[in-house]
Write a structure and sequence with these properties.
Largest sheet: 7 strands, mixed
CATH class of the largest domain: Alpha Beta
Bound molecules: pyridoxal-5'-phosphate
CATH superfamily of the largest domain: Type I PLP-dependent aspartate aminotransferase-like (Major domain)
Mean pLDDT: 96
Number of strands: 16
Strand content: 15-25%
């Protein structure tokens, strides 16, 4: 039997250690941990039966809503056959079918090879290691450095963190990890010398918008310029679409906004519709061919690579995209969100609002004291909205199935919370 809510909270505070969470505050007597027990669509329910709108898609993962009948049915069907089998030396039908469907999502099927892993960080490790190993075994071992951007975020494993440009997330990765040349923006690339260029293996970027940096938008047209630079210098272009993938920006992938196809793309968070940890790194036949020589095996993999259940969920999610015309239905929601954000932008203490598709950010003036963003999100919780700030940037990133009424309810909760905390 599941223990009652108070007992669950006690056990949590006694034995758990939560990610990105100051645990002294979490375990303090006054703090009531929110324990989520059920959900449907955009609505989450806690241990006491209180309901909340899922304002950040359960940390940027959920796509079609929770408890989706089609995804559920696909998982049940897959469970009736098998949950997981090894992908090292074996294959399985959902992984095969998903690879085909993912390849078909990109123009000209240029990204023709799919490598599975578990999460965004591992999808990035795969791209980085493949790029570096490619040059090593193609007679250009000097190409050992990856260009990454200031304030980038590519995950928390050591290698992925070393690519990141936000120092608190980099932690111990500063001392080791990949060789990284960090640049503030595109202009810096023009200042690289021939000697610099001879060392560059790849450029990695979050296309259109840097997520963990506080939903920072890149200038329009930048991806095309970056692509041209990469072609000119024969440098691999890696797109981290872990956050932007699967409709968030208004198109299936952020790279579609500028018609750019990179050499590697990392997909994770929304891949399974937000159901299960599964990631995919897609790359080109050119990169794949570089691994066909003797002794050129890509020695990398995880226990749950190609998870049958995960792939079945991803296939179901892609089917929902097609059958429910999910992308086509986003436009009115994005327009409504823009209108609602403009209203919020008029509040005192709101410095700026930003939007990219169904991703919205609200910068709050921190004049009222410490941790204003966190206090506003706590207040929003009392008004039935769950989300998580990035310092003093409030993030709204609902599941794509959100209705315009739900969007209005979400921004109303935020508006009340901002007014309560900031006055
Ligand atoms: C979340 C995120 C990652 C890391 O993904 P995990 O699944 O948390 O490992 C990498 N890149 C971007 C852009 C992300 O938003």
């Amino acid at each position: 039997m599941i223990p009652g809510p108070d007992e669950l909270a006690r056990i949590d505070k006694t034995h758990l250690w939560h990610p990105f969470t100051p645990m002294r505050e979490w375990c303090a007597d006054g703090h009531e941990p929110l324990i989520l027990t059920e959900a449907r669509g955009c609505v989450l329910r806690d241990q006491y039966g209180r309901e909340y709108l899922d304002g950040n898609s359960s940390i940027w993962t959920n796509i079609h809503g929770h408890n989706h009948p089609e995804v559920n049915a696909a998982l049940r069907e897959q469970l009736g056959r098998v949950a997981h089998t090894s992908f090292l030396g074996f294959s399985n039908p959902p992984a095969i079918q998903l690879a085909k469907e993912l390849v078909d999502l990109f123009p000209g099927r240029k990204l023709s090879r799919v490598f599975y892993s578990d999460d965004g960080s591992t999808a990035i490790e795969v791209a980085a290691r493949m790029a570096l190993q490619y040059w090593r075994q193609s007679g250009k071992p000097a190409r050992d450095t990856i260009i990454a951007f200031d304030r980038a975020y590519h995950g928390d494993t050591l290698g992925a963190a070393s690519l990141g440009g936000i120092s608190i997330f980099r932690g111990s990765a500063d001392a080791c990890g990949y060789r990284v040349l960090r640049v503030p923006g595109l202009d810096a690339l023009d200042f690289l010398t021939a000697d610099d260029l001879a060392r560059i293996a790849a450029v990695i970027i979050e296309p259109l918008i840097q997520g963990a940096a506080g939903m920072r938008l890149w200038p329009q047209g930048m991806l095309r310029v970056l692509e041209a630079w990469c072609r000119r210098t024969d440098t691999f272009l890696i797109f981290d679409e872990v956050m932007t993938g699967f409709g968030r920006t208004g198109k299936m992938f952020a790279c579609e906004h500028e018609g750019v196809v990179p050499d590697f793309i990392a997909l994770a968070k929304g891949l399974t519709g937000g159901y299960l940890p599964l990631a995919a790194t897609l790359t080109t036949e050119r990169v794949f061919d570089g691994f066909l020589g003797d002794g050129n095996t890509f020695y990398y993999g995880h226990s749950y690579c190609g998870s049958q259940l995960g792939c079945a969920a991803a296939l179901a999610s892609l089917r929902v995209f097609r059958e429910d015309h999910v992308i086509e239905k986003l436009a009115p929601k994005i327009t409504r969100l823009a209108g609602l954000l403009a209203e919020i932008g008029k509040l005192p203490h709101v410095i700026e609002t930003r939007q990219c598709g169904l991703i919205a950010a609200i910068d709050i003036d921190d004049a009222t004291g410490l941790k204003t963003g966190a206090r506003i999100c706590l207040a929003a919780r009392m008004h039935g909205l769950l989300t998580r700030p990035i310092l003093n940037t409030l993030v709204l990133m609902p599941p794509l199935c959100v209705t315009t009424d739900e969007l209005a309810a979400m921004t109303t909760a935020l508006r009340k919370a901002i007014t309560e905390v900031c006055g």
